[in-house]
Specification:
By secondary structure, this protein is an alpha/beta fold. About 35% of the residues lie in helices and about 20% in strands. The chain has an eleven-stranded mixed sheet with strand order 5-4-6-7-1-8-15-14-9-10-12, sandwiched between helices. A two-stranded antiparallel ribbon has the order 2-3. The protein starts with 5 loop residues before the first strand and ends with a strand.
Length: about 400
């Protein structure tokens, strides 16, 4: 059976450079990272991160319900609201039984869990929060969006580490293609800027250490790349069958043409050095889309600014796309938003398709010697783009790739 065309008709974001889609796009194109020291990380080996700022989350959500939501859940709800409004939809007018919610996360409410463990130890069980479970379990972004949006169709919370966002889009696409829903609210969210998580990444050797200007710490594909900088945020999209979008007069932002996924089965944190399993994920996405590799006109790279990941991905890109399409890596600006990264970067890829602009890789003058890839540097590249792919590669060897097309 031929898979029906899937349209992205709504997009919402909240990131370290903006509390909506437009400001996020502007911030990524400006290529200046907002990384700063974070008071809650005082005393940690790493006390800086790219954080969502300039918004009262509880006021934006509504204080009657915000008390039961973790920070990562609030991000997801706000991004979902923007996406649904952007799609021109009103939950009061839809059949909620035909609406699915698929929102991934990597660590969920781990921050609250660690806080509550300290409260339990120091002050006893009566001092812990009665909303403790709700603030912790990773399905709550999907659940809270479903509650607010009156969505009673399938609701899922995929976790494939840093690939969770693209996995969510893939699952949503399949639900639409098999007729299990008519609309899907899909994406990912994350907030891991808390002491245990930051200490863990520092101890693992994956994180950058302060070496001067914090804004220049995240340097994807640079010869002197020093590790990842933590970020946080969310991106959510509304997906529907393209024929249904056309029937209701909706203008798609993009078509979700294909997805692919593989697992390295090599090491808990390091990618397979020859990149062949990740390449298989790219090939699967292109096969699903019906594209040749030489038809890809832009690559949104995972680009973590870590030594091994960037080397493996650069090798993959140079072998997979010898025609050298322009490459960007948003983590130079946003930091690594972990489980949300894939959804945020897919959203940015959609904006590139719409606007014919490829954002630059922040803090990069030229790719490291031996990296035969065409990274956009310094200024945004103005160029029409019809077909693009976004890579997401996560701990545990999870590889997920989405192919996106201009309508």
């Amino acid at each position: 059976m031929r898979t029906p065309a899937i349209a992205v008709t709504g997009l919402g974001m909240i990131t370290p450079v903006g509390n909506d889609t437009e400001s996020t796009w502007d911030g990524v194109c400006a290529a200046v990272s907002p990384v700063r020291t974070v008071a809650a990380l005082e005393g940690c080996a790493i006390d800086f991160a790219c954080v969502v700022d300039g918004i009262d989350l509880d006021a934006a959500i509504g204080r009657r319900t915000a008390f039961r939501m973790g920070r990562y859940v609030k991000f997801a709800v706000l991004a979902a609201r923007e996406a649904v409004a952007d799609a021109g939809l009103d939950p009061a007018g839809w059949d909620g039984s035909r609406v699915a919610v698929v929102v991934g996360t990597s660590s969920g409410g781990s921050a609250h869990l660690t806080d509550q463990a300290l409260v339990l130890e120091r002050r006893g069980p009566e001092a812990t929060s009665p909303a403790g479970v709700l603030l912790t379990i990773p399905n709550m972004p999907a659940a809270e969006i479903a509650i607010e949006m009156r969505a009673t169709g399938p609701s899922m919370a995929p976790c494939t580490a840093c690939s969770s966002g693209v996995t969510a889009l893939s699952v949503a696409r399949d639900l639409l293609a098999t007729g299990q829903c008519d609309l899907a609210i899909a994406g990912a969210t994350e907030s891991t800027v808390f002491p245990i998580a930051m200490t863990g990444f520092a101890r693992s050797g994956a994180a950058a250490r302060a070496d001067g200007d914090l804004a220049r710490l995240s340097r994807p594909f640079a010869a002197d790349r020093a590790g990842l900088v933590m970020g946080e945020g969310a991106a959510v999209m509304v997906l529907e069958r393209a024929a249904d979008a056309e029937a209701r007069g909706a203008e798609p932002r993009a078509l979700l043409a294909g997805t692919g996924a593989t697992t390295d089965a090599h090491h808990p944190t390091s990618p397979h050095p020859d990149g062949r399993i990740a390449r298989a994920a790219v090939e699967a996405a292109l096969r699903d889309a019906g594209w040749r590799a030489d038809e890809v006109e832009h690559v949104n790279a995972h680009g973590t600014a870590t030594v091994h990941n960037d080397a493996a991905e650069a090798a993959l890109i140079s072998r997979m796309y010898p025609h050298r399409p322009p490459v960007t890596a948003p983590k130079g600006v946003l930091g690594h938003c972990m489980g949300a990264a894939g959804a945020i970067e897919a959203g940015l890829t959609i904006l590139t398709l719409q606007r014919g602009v490829v954002p630059p890789v922040a803090n990069l003058d030229a790719p490291a010697p031996g990296f035969d890839i065409d990274c956009v540097t310094k200024q945004p590249l103005v160029r029409p783009v019809r077909r693009a792919v976004s890579h997401s590669f996560g701990f545990g060897g999870h590889n997920a790739v989405v192919a996106l097309q201009r309508p």
